[in-house]
Amino acid sequence: MSNWDLASDYIGHNRLWKEFHAKINSNTGKHYLETWIANAKANKSRVKEYGWACEALQGKHKGMTAVLLGASPAIRNQVDKLRELQESDDFVFIGITSGLEFMVENGIRPKYVMIADADPKMARFWSKLDLNATKDSTLIASVCTHPDMLDKW
Description:
- The chain is α/β, with parallel strands linked by helices and 153 residues long.
């Protein structure tokens, strides 16, 4: 049985998994649990096609400093410094979905983009995004990400 099959069975059929999520955040867990399960099942073929990022990326950037780029308004004050850092071989940039449009518009090109959003409404963060500008970025996605977001990438 593959890692994906094991994870899918665990998420979909394990009573303790459901209890765990409810305890961590009852509101989020109650609201999204079924969505997470449905998205994970819908993404099974995508994961099989593209693989597990943890396997492909393990050790790839050893010795480099990861710069995590969020969507905080504070990033607006750091654009020049970030552009400078991205030219160095000492740093690898990792952006998140909700800040990607701003990054691209300001010449910041993360090597990786992370997404874990189960809700298709998160597509609003990509409404004006030129996805051609992200062709050199690798998407790292949770299996629970809404399939439409993965298809758009």
